[in-house]
Amino acid sequence: MPASIWLNLIPAFLIGGLLCVGAQLLMDLTKPQFTPAHVLIVFVVAGAIAGALGWYEPLAKFAGAGATVPLTGFGYIMGKGAVEGAQSGIMGVLAGGIGAGAIGITAAILFSYICAVSFKPKG
Description:
This protein is an all-alpha fold. Helices cover 80% and strands 0% of the residues. The protein contains 7 helices and no strands.
């Protein structure tokens, strides 16, 4: 592999891994108070706040998919879309966030559906 590929893969792996380690630690150290749903909300909101403060854009440029694929990246994208849509009023705020995250939302729904029809629940 060319050296330039490694220069992209290493930061993505490190930052993505650190975000995942943070989520796992949050779940393990706060049992039973924090469920996976709580962690999901904390990470999405943290990504939106970090984006609003201007901290997430440099991280996303440095780590690429390592920062944009995890839940914090989804919050960042939703917040960025909402800010861009705010020029159109309150409906623009709602539509901007949903429009910016539409690919992620569509993928989640599609893959959830495929898993639901492909596997038989135990029980």
